[in-house]
Amino acid sequence: MAPHLDDLLDDSNVDPVYHAKAKVLNAAIQDIGMGRYQYYLFICAGFGWFADSVWPLITGLILTPVIAEFKFNGPFLSLAANVGLLVGAVVWGLGADVWGRKWSFNLTLLIAGVFGLAAGGSPNFLTLASLLAVVGVGVGGNLPIDSAVFLDLVPASHQYLLTVMSVWWSLGQLLISLLAWPFIANFSCSSTALACPKSDNMGWRYLLVTLGALTLIMSFIRFFIFNLLESPRFLVGIGMDQRAVEVIHQMAAYNSTTTSLSLEDLIGVEEKPTDEKGTNASDERPLLSKTSIFTLVHIKGLFATRKMAVSTSMLIALWGIIGLASTLYNSFLPFLLSSRGAQFNDGSLYLTYRNQVILSVIGIPGAFLAGWAVELPYIGRKGTLAISSGLTGAFLFASTTARSSVQLLGWNCGYVFFSNIMYGVLYAVSPEIFPACHRGTGNALVSTATRVFGVIAPVIALYANLATAVPVYISGALIIGAGCMALFLPFEPRGKASM
């Protein structure tokens, strides 16, 4: 017998008819259980986490050799990529509640792969920055879409796997570091060279071509091997009840099981008792199908009640604050390791990217620890987010005390471990709280917040002195503050079924 989980939201926070139908769908998905379809989805949706990890990191990893060849102010490359990520978060996130999850799920990786591959042949800085900006448009939509897709199709008892999904983020970091290490270290211009021709600086191009090809392979798997079913809760939200029932039956068949869900089960919950005036209470409610129109209805739905408005606003603030702090730090981490290493007489490209590989390995167990911690009583999502944020900020502060590259690497290991837990919970708790009929828009709003500050971070870096510890102190304080804010989120998804 499937375990019973209370609803995260009640019908005072979402449309009562939608809420009732979502409960029916949740029960059906829970009865089907965690099966082959959900495990394949974990892999294919994980490709989005992978892309969101590697492509934003690419600007920092290729920064040194690209500057040597094209002679430009480094933060402009990160700025271009982050502008693309911002556009992608808005377009794909909002669009997911208009044209559905399926096309967005398939196209985002395709765009990233095609233009990432092309970026490897860039003849100048302007071309490279433009192509990476378009890559960002594709990558920026991955997390808003993929988290919504996974949460819409997984049983409530296994929602915690959305937190574990961040293991793909860590694996992406590891892979790109393993690729960057030999490519950049062995196929880049000498740091003492006066000129840096293309023939002596192919490493960053090899890295982009390899990563672009890998992203294309992932997009082909999504297109031709894995058949993504449209979200049944999205279909109900636009009035396509029959299609939603068909999707549930398709998923059951894929898992070699059956479901008793019928169209009558969904239609039955629409019958509402009349109020004191003798009118049907549902007559005054806008048709669910209106949510398919590209208007402000989805944004309004996220602020429909005081509790939802507070929750949405706090989540936007959390993503924005953490996005500013982490982007400013992460975008220039290879530069920081190299420049600080130079002060310690071991800032070679080899050691810089070796250290990057070590940091990437450290993050992998964090994803599994996060998946365990969010299910703990009294701690849950909010507690795990608060604790991991506090420790992330603490290790950032501690990194300023490093007096050798080994010490700096050690403090950064702690930072990466706990920041991966922090991001894993943050990426999961937001879509869990947003109702599915507005989930794409909610994900777009929070992703846009972090992308906006991702654009601001390189601008700050243009005028800030990165050789001092001030940016690190600011980043640490912001992340600790965000952790404290997380404790006051109105909703705790642990043990609750997302609607």
From TrEMBL:
The way this protein sits in the membrane is described as: Multi-pass membrane protein
What are the alphabetically sorted keywords of the record? Membrane, Transmembrane, Transmembrane helix, Transport
InterPro entries from the xrefs?
Answer: MFS_dom, MFS_sugar_transport-like, MFS_trans_sf
Q: Which GO terms describe its molecular function?
A: transmembrane transporter activity
Entry-linked Gene3D superfamilies = MFS general substrate transporter like domains (1.20.1250.20)
Coiled-coil annotated spans: none
Domain of life, per lineage: Eukaryota
* Predominant subcellular localization, coarse grouping: membrane
Provide one Gene Ontology cellular component: membrane
Every Major facilitator superfamily (MFS) profile domain range: 1-494
Chain segments annotated as transmembrane: 39-64, 76-96, 103-122, 128-153, 160-184, 204-225, 316-337, 357-376, 383-402, 408-429, 441-464, 470-491
Q: Where does the UniProt annotation locate this protein?
A: Membrane
Which is one Pfam family of this protein? Sugar_tr
- Spell out the SUPFAM superfamilies in the cross-references: MFS general substrate transporter (SSF103473)
PANTHER family given in the database record: SYNAPTIC VESICLE GLYCOPROTEIN 2 (PTHR23511), TRANSPORTER, PUTATIVE (AFU_ORTHOLOGUE AFUA_7G01740)-RELATED (PTHR23511:SF12)
Which family, according to the similarity comment? Belongs to the major facilitator superfamily.
What is the protein named? MFS general substrate transporter
Q: Which organism is it from?
A: Mycena sanguinolenta
